[in-house]
Amino acid sequence: MERLVDPTIQVRTPARSARVRHLRRDPRVSFLVEDGQTWTELRAALLLEFIRIESDPDQITAATALLRKKYRGDLPSDTRASAVARHNDVSFVILIISAVHPLVAWDHRKINP
Q1: 63 exposed, middle or buried (CB, 10 Å; 0-12, 13-18, 19+)?
Q2: CATH number of 14's domain
Q3: For the chain, how many structural domains are there in total?
Q4: Which of 7, 58, 67, 93 is surrounded by the most beta carbons within 10 Å?
C-alpha cells in the first residue's frame, strides 16, 4: 500500500454548526472517494478514522489561507488583508482527519467479466 505524503484531510466548517456538535460527542468519521459511471468501472477508497477539532486561530488562519490559495489562487498579501481574514476566520474551526488506519480500497475494473 502506498503511503500518503500528507496523510491528513482538513475541512473548514462553522464552529457552531450541528456537524461540530455531533463530532464533539462522537469523533468517528468515514470519508469515501469514488469514481466510475457503471458498476464495472467503479473504484473507491474508504477511510474510517477519528477527527480532531482545531480551534486555534493561528491554525484556522493558516488552513484558510491554503484553501483560498488552492481554490481562488490568491493569498492576502498585506497586513490589513491578513487581519480581516483572521477576523472572519474566528467563527470557524478546522476538522482534521489523520489517516492512521489502513485505507479500504476496491477497483471493479480489475474484475474479469
Answers
A1: buried
A2: 2.30.110.10
A3: 1
A4: 93
> Distance between CA 98 and CA 25 in Å, rounded?
18
Task: List the chain pLDDT tens, one digit each, 113 residues.
Answer: 444 456 678 888 899 999 999 999 999 999 899 999 998 999 999 989 999 998 888 888 888 888 888 777 765 555 445 555 555 556 888 888 887 788 899 999 998 76
93 found inside a domain: yes
Q: Are strands 92-98 and 28-35 parallel, antiparallel or unpaired?
A: unpaired
* Residue 31 CB contacts under 8 Å (≥ 6 apart), including other chains: 9, 46, 47, 49, 97
Residue 3 lies in a domain: no
Beta-carbon count within 10 A of 69 CB = 11
- Cβ-based neighbours of 75, under 8 Å, separated by 6 or more: 65, 68, 69
Which domain covers residue 34, as residue numbers? 8-108
